[in-house]
């Protein structure tokens, strides 16, 4: 790599980013599975949404993002059409894992620096993509509080 | 960029990563400031630590990480020696923002791919560095639940 290339030198390469996300997805799957089935879509703290509803939103946003990495297109999902049971959520989670494994590392490098049009605005691909991961970490952490409040020990955060 | 460079093509460049973290730091600062002073180091849900204690840990880990980006060294902080009031926490937060602005973009590109020795194990620089951001998002989200439980509207997650 020449000195002139340094300003765009990677902090995270594409394969780093994909394995970063895969590690978080594995952890989030363990958090979904840790919920008592009857609490997943009903229990909440402070008037917030139940974790099952948050996890369904994470899933739909993630599926939208993987689709964009593959095709460059960001069609808005039907937010009301996601999985509605723990088993269905885990099944769709695994299917999306499979798709991310297939297409993630082959994402066009230009995807990350190019400007994209999303339903909620224009932004560089890296901003849109890492937002999906940030949103997952954010809502999953709220699931940690719910689990603690339910008396369930959550999975270790540092294990991916 | 030649085709042979593609396997290490950036998902996030160094300057992308720094601005990503700065955006999260600005949001976390707003969350710290949103807490009623008397609740910051005392209120909790589900037997978890108060948000002030979590935010102090975020600060110490972030300071350790910025120091490593600057020097390549990861000396473990004294976890008991962090700021202990809201005002002190915000002051130290601002000072670290200043340091990150000064040194972040100049981080040696080799830092991110090289293997580093941290007090809790050996890992590539990008893993160690983004862990600090993930840890911040994770604990800040727990602060969101505390704020909701306290009847305080938290700052918008998507604003950075």
UniProtKB/TrEMBL annotation, chains A, B:
**What Gene Ontology molecular function terms does this protein carry?**
metal ion binding
Q: Any keyword Aminoacyl-tRNA synthetase?
A: no
User: Record's SUPFAM superfamilies?
Assistant: DinB/YfiT-like putative metalloenzymes
* Alphabetic keyword roster: Metal-binding
Segments traversing the membrane: none
Q: What family name appears in the similarity comment?
A: Belongs to the DinB family.
Q: What is the protein named?
A: Damage-inducible protein DinB
Query: Which species is listed as the source?
Result: Deinococcus arcticus
């Amino acid at each position: 790599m020449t000195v002139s290339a340094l300003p765009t030198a990677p902090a995270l390469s594409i394969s780093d980013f994909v394995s970063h996300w895969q590690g978080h997805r594995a952890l989030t799957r363990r958090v979904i599975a840790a919920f008592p089935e009857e609490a997943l879509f009903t229990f909440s703290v402070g008037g917030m949404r139940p974790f099952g509803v948050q996890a369904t939103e994470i899933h739909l946003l993630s599926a939208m993002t993987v689709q964009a990495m593959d095709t460059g297109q960001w069609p808005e999902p039907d937010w009301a059409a996601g999985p509605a049971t723990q088993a269905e959520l885990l099944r769709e989670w695994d299917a999306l894992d499979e798709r991310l494994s297939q297409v993630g590392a082959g994402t066009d490098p230009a995807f990350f620096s190019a400007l994209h049009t999303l339903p909620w605005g224009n932004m560089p691909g890296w901003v849109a993509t890492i937002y999906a991961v940030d949103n997952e970490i954010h809502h999953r952490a709220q699931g940690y509080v719910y689990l603690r409040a339910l008396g369930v020990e959550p999975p270790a955060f540092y294990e991916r």
